[in-house]
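User: Hi! Is it possible to get a structure for several chains at once, not just one? Here's what I have:
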Amino acid sequence: MARIEISCVEVWREVSNYLDADISPELRERMEAHFKVCAHCSAVLDGMQNVVGLVADGRLFQTPEGFNKRLYNKINPHR
Amino acid sequence: MPQPHLESNETELIRRVCGGNPEAFEELVRPYERLVYVTAISILRNQADAEEVAQEAVLKAFSKLSSFRAECKFSTWLVQITYNEARMRLRKDRRNLYESLDEHHEEPEGDYWPRDFADWRPIPSELLEENETRQALQNAIDSLSPTYREVVVLRDVQNLSIKDAATILGVTEGTVKTRLHRARLLLRDALAPGIDGCWCTERSYQKVRPW
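Assistant: Yes, the chains can be modeled jointly so their relative placement is included. Here is the combined structure:
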C-alpha cells in the first residue's frame, strides 16, 4: 500500500510530539520518510533536538553555592 | 493501602516524618533540591528571590506533609507547592504585576512556524563548560514569555513527564503539548543565529556558529 505523503506544515505541527515519541507508528513512518527528502524539515528537527538536549544538561541551571546548607539551616529550627 | 505513585523509600520516609521523626525530612527532600530551585528561578528570574521561595516552599511541604495523599508523586507535589509559592511572590511584587496578570495568560492564536532552516550540526555538550554558551541558552530561555518558559523548564530542563507538568500547571496534557511545541520552536529560533550573536543571511552564517 502506498504511503500517504505529509506536508512540511503538518511535520512542523508534530515535530515536538515526534521528539517525545508521542505519535502513532503510522505518522512516525510518514514523518521519517519526509525527513529523508526535506532538508528544511530535517533542519527543524535537528535544531529542536539540539536545543532540547542542551537545556536538559545539568550544567545549565545550577543551584547557588551553599544553597542546600542554607536550605536545611532554615528548616532545622522548624523541625 | 498501596501508594503506586511513591517510591517505597519515600513512603517510608514520609511515614517517619509524620510519625515524629522530622530528621527524615532532609533525606526525603535532598534528591529534589535542584528541582525546587530551578522551578522557582524559572518563574522569578532572580537568584535571591528564587532561593527564598525555594526555602519557603520546602518549609510549607514540611508543615503540610501529613496532608499529602500520594495522588501524585512526592516530587510533583513539591514542585507544585514551589510553583504556587513563586507565582504568589510574583503577584505580590508590584513591579511584576503587569507580567503576572496579563502576559502570563497571553496565549497566541494560530500556529507558530519555524523561521530558520539552516542545517544544525550537533552542538557538542562540552560547549556548556563555557560561560558564553550557558549564558546564550539562559538568555534564550529568559526571552520566552512565562507561559512557555515554565513548560520548557518543567519538561525539558527538569525532565518531568507531560502528565506531571500538566498537574503542576493545572492545565490539560494537550495544553502542555501545544505550549511545549511552540516553546521549543521559539527556543530553536532564538538560538539559530549562533551563540556569538552573529546573524548573516547568506549561507556563510553556518560558519559563524561555534558548533
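Residues 8-78 of chain A form one domain. Chain A has one domain: 8-78.

User: Great, thank you!
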